[in-house]
Amino acid sequence: MRWTDRQLEAITRNERRILVSAAAGSGKTAVLVERILRKITNPSCPQDITRFLMVTFTKAAAAEMRGRLAKALSQRLAKADPDSEEGRLLLRQLMLLPAAQITTVHAFCMRLIRENFHALALPASFRLADEHEAGLLADEAAEAVLEEAYAKNGPGSPFFALVEAVAGPRDDRR
Fold it and tell me: 93-129: b or e for each residue (b if 16 or more CB lie within 10 Å)?
């Protein structure tokens, strides 16, 4: 594959942490896959794939990255002598791939919270609200905020002007 200068820089940069941010379809996943492949197959200092954290925004992007890594490792393994150091290294990385931290931002944050619930003063049995519960909580919070704003602001206030501008003719549900 022919890499642009910026892509090649992201692939070869030696910093431990990098952030790759670019438009959809610009090759972010390919760049990250190549970067990881070079790190885990570096003959002088190979690193296990489980030592990396790869975070994406969607489950589909995480699955795509895992799939591309599996495909690339499998292709390289097929060309390598299975009894060679390279062959053993590739096989090891392929076997470790299911344990690699390739995840979404949300899943990563949830893992951190689950592992550190005690430091956050959360009960061990905490859980995320489902979509319906979250909607009900959001409605309750909005209602509480509006009630407080009505209590603190009188007619002619900027708050009432805003309500007049955005509310419907009968109520403030909008």
Answer: bbeebeebebbbeeebeeeeeeeeeeeeeeeeeeeee
Its pTM stands at 0.70
Burial code (b: 16+ CB inside 10 Å, e: under 16) for 43-77 equals eeebeebeebebbbeeeebbeebbebbeebbeebb
- For Cα atoms 21, 23, 28, give the angle at the middle one, nearest 5 degrees: 55
User: pLDDT of 34-61, one tens digit each?
Assistant: 999 999 988 888 899 999 999 988 999 9
- Decide: 38 and 12 in contact? Cβ < 8 Å: yes
Alpha-carbon separation of residue 62 from 31, 38, 52, 144 (angstroms): 14, 19, 13, 38
How far is Cα 59 from Cα 68, in angstroms, rounded to an integer? 14
Distance CA 59, CA 129 (A): 19
The CA–CA distances, whole Å, from 111 to 26, 27, 84, 106 equal: 29, 28, 37, 9
